[in-house]
Fold this protein.
Amino acid sequence: MASKKEKPKKPHYVNNKEFLQALIDWNELVKTAELEGKPQPPVTNYIGECFLKIATHLSYRPNFINYTYRDEMIGDGIENCLQYVKNFNPEKSKNPFAYFTQIIYYAFLRRIQKEKKQSHVKNKIIENMGVDALIQESEQGNQSDGYSEYLQNNFLPEEDVYKPKKKKKKPKALENFYDEDEKSDE
């Protein structure tokens, strides 16, 4: 029986020890800048790359992958990391990867909620404005028919959507029956 070959371990996309050391070094720069009365120095390229890698890899998780606004989610995550990077305390935790992953995760959830609210507002505006008005605007603006068809199919109430009525045909066996009854009633 052949033994299974062990897969070579892939290196982590963010080395936690190097990331921790970079944050410690950056914190020292911040403290010296505060003592000298200078503004806070920007984070190093390495720290920024780590934020980007964490956010990008987290966006590939199954619960985030299918959103069309994934780029905005990544941007929000990085923005929050930059906002709270000063709050990371290496004396309390030696795991900056977990700290910033949580920050990015909750930034993603906030973005999803924000997009859901915007979508709801957009749908309410369409309902209140009336689809007919939107269709007329789209036709005046020379937009494609696909847009007006989309509005008709998705936002008009069922009774407003034009659907040609199919004529019901009587079965031939019953046609004779009805015809005879009608003749006899006369």
The chain has a mean pLDDT of 80. The helical segments are 16-36, 45-59, 70-84, 96-129, 131-140, 145-155, 172-185. Residues 16-117 form one domain. Residues 79 and 104 are 9 Å apart (CA to CA).
